[in-house]
């Protein structure tokens, strides 16, 4: 993978970025995504943010190698702290992190989202936390995708600021995704079949454990998830 040929995962993230955007790619790593989008003429400009020195240096070197310094600003900082006021950022991408970390980044930097119209989020795990945060903060989920690459399954969520959204997601939609539930792509079926099998194995072990309120709560949580998935896969 490089700036000319994105991975399947990043190519899918790129497909959710509106043409003409000013992009902030948080956790940009090598800055492959913003470099690709600028070179393709898909976005006006970009900010590549990284919290650690190593990835920041990798991103800086890639932007410099491609002579894209006039179009892409590489910055080191924590989450949305790399953004400054009135920079015109209209789209933010956060990919390759856990769902809890993505929601933490959005929560801490929420004041930086005032003029952002699109979020493109790719949680490695815990996508339900991302969906819940979006709905709780009046962001409308406008599309989702699921794909498999290198034996890993990824979900991508696109959202737009609604402001007055009264949209609610039920438990199954929060867990598995409203669009993904409707589409039931083969990768979706595989993912949740395996998840359900894993939960059933954990449940079987819990059934043999000494009964405590904590164990009982875990069992009930697993039973509920298994029920939701089994109903979705019918």
Automatic annotation (TrEMBL):
Keyword list, A-Z: Methyltransferase, Transferase
Annotated coiled-coil segments of the chain: none
SUPFAM superfamilies from the UniProt entry: S-adenosyl-L-methionine-dependent methyltransferases
One GO term (biological process) = methylation
Is Methyltransferase one of the keywords?
Answer: yes
GO terms for molecular function, please? tRNA (adenine(22)-N1)-methyltransferase activity
The superkingdom listed in its UniProt entry is Bacteria
Tell me the Pfam families matching this sequence. Answer: TrmK (PF04816)
Organism of origin: Bacillus chungangensis
What Enzyme Commission number(s) does the record list for this chain?
A: 2.1.1.217
The protein in question is named: tRNA (Adenine22-N1)-methyltransferase
